[in-house]
Structures are given as C-alpha cells and as structure tokens.
Amino acid sequence: MKSIGLNGIRPHIKSEIPRKLYWADKLGVLVMADLPNSWGDPEYKMQQEAENTFRAVVKRDFNHPSIFSWILFNETWGLSTHWEEVGKREAQYLPETQMWVSSMTIWPNH
Hints:
By secondary structure, the chain is an alpha/beta fold. The protein has a single domain, classed as TIM Barrel. Helices cover 34% and strands 20% of the residues. Strand 2, helix 2 and strand 3 form a beta-alpha-beta unit.
C-alpha cells in the first residue's frame, strides 16, 4: 500500500482487528475506524447494539495514534424506516431516528 503512495485506509463497515491497528501505528498508516452498520430498520435493539459496539471499540482502540476518524454510520444504512403502501415499498427518516443519530456524536452520553 505504501509502496504505491497510499497512506490511509478505511476498513469498510467493520471494526478493525487490533493486530492491524498495531501495524498501522508502527508503519504510519492513517485509519478511518468504521463501526458495523445495520441494513434493517432502526429498531431499538439495533440501536442498543450499535451503542454497545461503539463503546466497546472506542474503549479498546482509543489509544491507537493511527486512528484519526471514527465513522459511526455508512451513508444512511440502517437509518430509514420502511413500510408497504399500495404495493410500493416506502422509506422515511423518522425524527426519533434523527435524534438518536445526533445523540451518538456526544460521547459522554454513550
């Protein structure tokens, strides 16, 4: 990767394993740390799992100098609520989901 001039990676929608972060630190590779995302509707259990994962991964990896960014959500995956209306699948971002997404950016509450 470095031999072709790249200096950063984004392991897409998964938490990176500690060994890779160790080597990123040693080799000077920048890492955008993603958290896993859901593809389903933003139900309470999914939100709790996302919060628990966020806390655990940050607790484990916060001290890696290679991590320069935490990516909480990939685009809008798992953030819209779906339903069927007149044979057509509809989706909407509900206000309560928007509030939850906003709350995820405030670390002390999580």
